[in-house]
Design brief:
Mean pLDDT: 84
Number of helices: 14
Number of strands: 0
Structural class: mainly alpha
Helix content: over 70%
Oligomer: single chain
Strand content: under 5%
Length: 419
């Protein structure tokens, strides 16, 4: 350490500072990455757990596939009390969900949309009684449909308004989450979607309605593909494949309906001839909902683990910073005090001694391969030069005394001779 040059020590100190900075930057980057992971997981978790999103999904289910609209249309077609009871059940369920939804913090647009949905659900419930009256007279399904016309567009617009409000503003370029895609599938499948249009197709046997069915099939297929693109488990893959299998069956059935309608068959005959096993679809909807919940629970745990990791990183970062700064402070103090200040003060003292005439003063730092050693060498040269000057001065004084003695001797000798 005695031969450690100040320039080398300065470079080492600079390197230590740079290394400390790099460590801190690396920790910050890791913490930032973990925070982004937490943020993404938290956004998805909030979207899925959002009470509005949950209630909207429940409302679509109650009003859509297997719910109010399907039973309402099936009651027209099949005219059995089973469907009338289901209409009452899903009417009550839909109204209950709407009332719960109204208890949340809503803006005026959302409140208006819920009011519209409440009116539409009430109308469907009331019209079920009208269908019951018509069935007593054995009125055909197409005639009942012609007499009971309910415009679904206000309800569809209301559901759209609620969906936009529930999902909120999205980041530019952000992909839909699995929860959003599942809700989108329910939307295309239920009220105003596939099952609604398919039942209308059987009753009205209109090619334009068949095109709507195909459009719904395309939309659901696209949502399922987007869902798969997000990465799915083996079970999710099977559920989606089962769902798509049933959806493909509806696509084929739409062609069958038009073909049988062309043969002059009635809605009831077409309905009896068609057999679509939708158990896989119903199971897929519930299964995917459960899968998403399980994945969100796992992500919630991952968030907790990541947060724990962030806490550990922060603690490590703090301790590394404290230790490195302590070492840097100690190193700086040692460098300045013992390798710069003390040696320079020692050399200054030696120079003062030399200036005071003490040419025997010891020069500290001689032989060291440092800047201080170089300074000591320069002072040593000054000392040696001063000693040489003193030696020459002493020799000259001695010679002068010798000359004076000789001259005095010669003068005395000369005086003696003259006497």
């Amino acid at each position: 350490m005695n031969n450690l040059r100040i320039s080398t020590a300065s470079r080492l100190l600079l390197i230590a500072i740079v290394v400390t900075g790099i460590i801190q930057v690396a920790n910050v980057l890791r913490i930032t990455n973990n925070v982004e992971t937490i943020d993404d997981a938290w956004v998805e978790f909030q979207e899925a757990q959002n009470e509005k999103v949950r209630l909207l999904g429940d409302l679509r289910s109650a009003m859509g596939y297997g719910g109010l609209i399907e039973n309402f249309k099936d009651y027209m077609l099949r005219q059995t009390d089973e469907y009338l009871e289901n209409i009452k059940k899903f009417t009550d369920k839909s109204m209950s969900i709407i009332k719960t939804y109204e208890g949340l913090g809503l803006n005026d647009t959302e409140t208006s949309a819920l009011g519209t949905l409440e009116e539409i659900v009430t109308v469907y419930g009331a019209q079920a009684g009208e269908i019951e009256t018509l069935t007593f007279d054995a009125v055909a399904a197409e005639e009942i449909d012609a007499k009971i016309q309910i415009d679904p567009m206000p309800a569809l617009e209301a559901l759209k308004v609620l969906a936009q409000a529930a999902e909120g503003k999205k980041k530019k370029g952000a992909k839909k989450t699995k929860s959003q895609l599942l809700n989108s599938i329910r939307a295309h499948l239920g009220f105003g979607g596939l099952i609604h249009n398919f039942k209308n197709l059987m009753i009205r046997r209109d090619a334009a309605i068949a095109d709507k069915v195909k459009a719904d099939v395309t939309a659901i297929t696209a949502d399922a593909a987007s869902y798969k693109a997000l990465g799915v488990s083996e079970n999710e893959g099977k559920l989606l494949d089962g769902l798509l299998g049933v959806i493909a069956g509806y696509d084929t059935a739409a062609e069958t309906v038009l073909a049988q309608a062309g043969q002059g068959k009635s809605p009831q005959e077409i309905d009896q001839a068609l057999s679509i096993d939708d158990s896989a679809l119903i199971g897929a909807l519930e299964g995917l909902k459960a899968e998403i919940k399980n994945q969100l629970d796992a992500k919630s745990q991952a968030v907790e683990d990541t947060l724990e990791g962030v806490r550990s990183l922060v603690q490590i970062s703090v301790w590394v910073t404290v230790v490195m700064l302590t070492l840097l402070v100690i190193g700086s103090y040692w460098l300045l005090n013992y390798r710069v200040r003390a040696p320079i003060m020692a050399i200054t003292g030696a120079m003062n001694d030399l200036a005071g005439g003490n040419l025997e003063a010891k020069i500290p730092g001689l032989g060291e391969k440092t800047e201080v050693g170089e300074m000591a060498g320069a002072v040593q040269v000054f000392k040696e030069n001063a000693q040489e000057v003193n030696r020459m001065t002493a020799e000259r004084e001695t010679e002068d005394r010798r000359n004076r003695r000789r001259l005095r001797g010669e003068v005395l000798a000369l005086n003696s001779a003259l006497e």
